[in-house]
């Protein structure tokens, strides 16, 4: 099933291009929100998302703040940002002037700040994709978790897989100039949603 | 993934995987969220196994890519592999953990995400259907869990960010 779906080079470069443009917008939005300059790495596309994202953040048990939202509209899927704990603390300091020292001290104020970050990042990503394709991609209200990276990533993949066929996941890192603050983007479109995006871009046929 | 050391073979049980071994072994499911880590030990034959379940049941309209992904297909396969390695259901000591809802902040969090709870219900049902009973269960809540079974000591441990590592049960007792 999931692992056997393959796309041609044209489709794969389109996925990279969509991720580049979408994440470019998201990175700009985060820079504007925090008043701190962020860049992005080259997106990678993978059929086994959780292993990769856990490795990226520094191990399965690395504590992260995850902002997650299902995508609705013409294209469905799941989208999330993961910030390793130290990076989340720096983002909180930029946004609300201070950060909780311990995971247990994360309260409603910190959670809403991260919900807002998630809203802005994910909406700018989805808007860029909508503009490119003319398709409706709506963000739904985000949810936040402060947990082990693997617990967050696995829960998102389980959510995605229980609804639809998953073909691939797109992962990208965003970081500030000192690379002290890092975030990891995870996007899992449904197979049907991805095919619709390809259709709109005029590359529906397998290359 | 398995690493053999001088003492015990270590199994990292990834999502949708089933690992069964005879002799000294340590099984680990790292950072379970809504997934469930289910383990059994037969002390008489020294056979143990762990499965990392992701979803409650296989889809009727889609092929099953990995038996271990679903509680319904996975628990049957886990049991088959345990028995093939020499375990007997009547002697098996069983425990499981996971099934959390880790997204605790956000307006929609509680109403939208229920895979963890449905996984926990499905595991309980399928064990019951097969005439199996769990000695210890640690499911639900919002904490991610790392679950470890050391077959030498029989200890099944659960590690969370909030509470650190705790003993769930001793499957040798």
Largest interface: A-B, 42 and 37 residues
Instruction: Give the termini distance of chain A in whole angstroms.
Output: 20 Å
What is the multimeric organization of the chains shown?
A: heterodimer
CATH topology tier name of chain A: Chemotaxis protein chec
- Strand-pairing-aware structural class of chain A: alpha+beta
Key features?
heterodimer, A: Chemotaxis protein chec, eight-stranded antiparallel β-sheet, 6 helices, 47% helix, globular, B: 173 residues, alpha+beta, six-stranded mixed β-sheet, five-stranded mixed β-sheet, 3 helices, 19% helix
Please provide a written account of the structure.
- The complex is a heterodimer of chains A (207) and B (173).
- Chain A is α+β, with helices and mostly antiparallel strands and 207 residues long.
- In chain A, 47% of the residues lie in helices and 24% in strands.
- The longest helix of chain A has 26 residues, at 9-34.
- Chain A is globular and about 50 Å long.
- Chain B is α+β, with helices and mostly antiparallel strands and 173 residues long.
- Helix content of chain B is 19%, strand content 38%.
- In chain B, the strands form 2 sheets. Chain B has a 6-stranded mixed β-sheet, with no helix packed on it.
- The radius of gyration of chain B is 15 Å and the shape is globular.
